[in-house]
Amino acid sequence: MKHKFNVVKVGSTTVGGGPFSVWAGPCSVESQEQFSLTARKVKEQGGAGLRGGLYKLRTDPRAFQGLGREAFEFVRAVKKDVGLPFVSEITDARQIGDFLDVVDAFQVGSRNMHNYALLKELSQIDKPILLKRGFAATFKEWMLAVDYLAKGGNEKIILCERGIRTFETATRNTFDINAIALTKQETPFPILADPSHGTGIAALVTPIALAAAAAGADGLLVEVHPNPPEAKSDGYQSLNFAQFEDLMHKLPKVLTALDRKMATV
Hints:
Elements: E1 8-10, E2 13-15, E3 21-25, H1 32-44, E4 49-51, H2 72-82, E5 86-89, H3 96-99, E6 105-108, H4 116-122, E7 129-132, H5 139-151, E8 157-161, H6 177-186, E9 191-193, H7 195-199, H8 202-215, E10 219-223, H9 241-257
Parallel strand pairs: 3-4, 3-10, 4-5, 5-6, 6-7, 7-8, 8-9, 9-10
Antiparallel strand pairs: 1-2
């Protein structure tokens, strides 16, 4: 099946249509210094956009839940400083109004893929939606979640494969590389790969990222932190700056072999 592929404009960059875009940043925005350092490194290495959690849905209620509103002002300042668009997870429809002038795209996380009330609200917003696959969702269920957004009028949809829960326990999730190729064949939507959640192990992020690029992904969503051992969330799967540099050095080699190139901002 052939489709006319969507190209989704997010701030100053686009996702889909050929160039490979890397969106990187911390799992959680912890401070202005941490976010600024990371954002500058992402820009320096050729990243197309920033990611970072302001509100965090955590399995353990005692875990860090994000800075929320406290971070809004300095996130805007860092975005302006580096000139990159920003995507962050929305966890509640009541956050939409506050988020509108902070994010360039709303991320719907794995836990909220099935939150159809939230999807209906977001379908009315004229802003891109990054829809992650649920950690136990079939491909069909994921596509039906897409329909909730598209039927409401918002077709600025970017998909994100982030691994699914299987019988395997050696990694956090099982990264479904099949879904990358299937998405390109069966849908018109661009797709990012999240090898951070897909593996849960920093040392596996780069090889799986390269495999996703080879499989046809339109880009990556990667967790990067100045000092992962001290991260307030997901430090074990976050790349340090040296690891991120290594990834960004290797990606163009894989893409060149496939007649593709990195996105520029």
